[in-house]
Write a structure and sequence with these properties.
Elements (H helix, E strand, L loop, with lengths): L1 E7 L3 E8 L4 E8 L7 H19 L6 E6 L2 E2 L6 E3 L12 H5 L3 E5 H12 L8 E6 L3 E7 L2 E3 L29 H5 L4 H4 L7 H9 L3 H25 L3 E5 L7 H14 L10 E3 L6 H14 L1
Parallel strand pairs: 1-4, 4-7, 8-11, 11-12
Antiparallel strand pairs: 1-2, 2-3, 5-6, 8-9, 9-10
């Protein structure tokens, strides 16, 4: 069976044509054009063009389609039910009617987990937790080999756990959230305007700047407390870290391991592996295709 997987982001639409064994026949990028007016029309048409391109290259009468997007999907996974403030027109838009095909819709971080579970770092693993570290912090939960979406499909929003109860409330009202502690969106505020991005913060950290070193390690320490807490709740076989911030490589994973040595509960000396995601920026599209294939069996 072959599936088309599409990842709708704020800047780019990424797509793959993939077999059930993970073989990718074609992949492509299209600009979202979310900044045009009226904004909602351009990215919808761009997705229609993407699907048409896939069908033209590999004729499929009724392809299985998966679509990854920001926000919370509805109970039937055929539309995004809740995504305020971004991609106007996305909420409750029926992709199946628009494209004339069955479309399985899921959250973008959940899609990244599906890619890892089927073909990546969590292949063959029954229970896993994923955190995506980027502009914000997203995530997904795998239980008994299946994506756990939970009530109102909001499970896995690990960025909105509290790591500092005295901190400011984040975008969903949680005080001192993990997302605000390490997400790229808050770097300027956390650094008192000194750094605009995590990349700039890390460059200063590597050059020995004392303030940058304190700020970065404080963020990683909070990440460690969040992971240790979530491991106590979920007891996964492993934790996967994905997203752009994981490009810090050893500057992230080495201090994180040291902090987890302090905070993780390890009965019998057993610890939970923390690994880097296998897939990069095509994870959402691959995961969307995987999700659609799983639901079509």
């Amino acid at each position: 069976m072959t599936s088309i997987g599409i990842d709708l982001g704020g800047t780019w639409i990424k797509a793959v044509l993939m077999d059930s064994d993970g073989s990718i026949h074609h992949q492509t990028y299209h600009p979202t054009h979310a900044d045009r007016r009226p904004g909602e029309d351009h990215w919808k048409e761009a997705i229609a063009e993407t699907v048409a391109e896939m069908k033209e290259k590999y004729p499929l009468p009724h392809p299985v389609i998966g679509l990854s997007a920001p926000g919370l999907p509805n109970a039937t996974n055929d539309a995004i039910a809740f995504m305020p403030g971004r991609l106007a027109g996305l909420e409750n838009f029926q992709w199946g009617k628009f494209l004339g095909e069955t479309v399985h819709v899921l959250n973008d971080a959940h899609a990244a987990l599906m890619a890892e579970a089927r073909f990546g770092a969590a292949k063959g693993v029954k229970n896993a937790l994923m955190l995506t570290l980027g502009t914000g912090v997203g995530g997904g939960i795998l239980i008994d080999g299946k994506l756990y979406q939970g009530f109102f499909q909001k499970a896995g929003h690990v960025g909105h756990v509290t790591v500092n109860a005295a901190g400011e409330r984040d975008i969903v009202g949680v005080p001192g959230s993990l997302e605000d502690a390490i997400g790229n969106a808050t770097v300027e505020k956390r650094s008192l305007g000194r750094y605009q991005t995590t990349y700039a913060l890390l460059e200063a950290y590597r050059q020995g700047d004392h303030f940058a070193r304190w700020l970065w390690l404080d963020s990683v320490q909070k990440l460690a407390t969040g992971i240790a807490s979530l491991v106590n709740v979920l007891s996964p076989d492993l934790v996967i870290l994905g997203g752009g911030i994981t490009g810090a490589d050893g500057d992230l994973f080495e201090p994180l391991a040291s902090f987890l040595d302090l905070y993780e509960w390890r009965p019998g000396g057993k610890h939970t592996p923390v690994v880097q995601a296998h897939f990069g920026d095509m994870a959402g599209a691959i995961g969307a295709a995987s999700f659609a294939l799983q639901r079509s069996v």
